[in-house]
Target: aminomethyltransferase
Amino acid sequence: MTGKEDVATIEEELPPGTLPLDAWQRARGARMVVFANYHMPIQYEGIMAEHSWTREHAGLFDVSHMGQLSFSGEGVDEALEQLLPSDIKGLKPFRQRYSMLLDEEGGILDDLMVSRLDGGAFDGADIYMVVNGATKYDDMGWMIEHLPDEVTMNHMDEQALLALQGPEAGDALATLIPETAGLYFMQSGPFTWRGVPLWISRSGYTGEDGFEISIPADNAELLADALAALPQVKPIGLGARDSLRLEAGLPLYGHDLDPRVSAIGADLGFAIQKRRREEGGFFGHARVMKELADGPGSRRVGLRVDGRLPAREGAPIFAGDVMVGEVTSGGFAPTLGAPIAMGWVSLPHSALGTALEVEVRGKRIVATVAPMPFVPHRYRRQKSA
Model:
């Protein structure tokens, strides 16, 4: 492993990179933008059309910009439980959890997914983790600084990551890999397709049923071709990914989450299991317990915005003449046919149904604190199967 300074220097010096499917995307008419220091597709046919297709059928997303990490070594569970507030020791093989990387004061450095491997995947590693693309080098530096020497972290930059999302994703993937039909939400496991090793989890970032597929980068185009050839599947860009996750009430790191905010204020306390709350031993435990007892100073909320004009990130939120918060994500929700937003507001103004106003283009627009998700999640959960 390299030192923290080396990782940061690498990130600063890198020009925008290309992902394994760059040529594949351009050949299909993708409009490319730079995101998380990679050239990535913002759209193919159009954001509205791609959003609707994913809600009705299955969309294929290239999320290879995300950081894929593996961990192994003596005491790996205990080491990760200092950095993450979630129960890693209790994570069973082939199971996955949502968690966060916290700093010493309990600020959120990133949100992530962590999975227990089976001892056979990824060179026998114990833990597999997916972190956000824009923060992966900072995450790696932080973990290198705080993990003991006995724990080895591997940046799996030779792996691509594809996401297949939508109500027809299960049937589509089962056409190619029948065994995936047995997976339920937040389950994962090793699979093989045409001799290629895959790690597949039933999860995603749209609120729909779906999968994330880790595959050697050299084989990513082969799998993308096979999936896109299915009648249920179309390639989808970042634009629809953002509108889908906003409708699903899912936060975006660097916008809705950052080191200034806490897990409790962000309404992510579900990721801190009872044992961890009681035992502590993780960065930020004191802040978590204080905010559970006394409430946070502000809270992440959903907002229904009157009219048709969307409230974008940075729009101030008012209660009367007093500014009480700020929009962190906002846009038009194609599924609802109306603008929605996510933002942080002071605790006294965070209750459901609270009438507020957002300032958009110099005009005050009524916005009401609303429950999230805005569009119900449709995960394939085992208990309801």
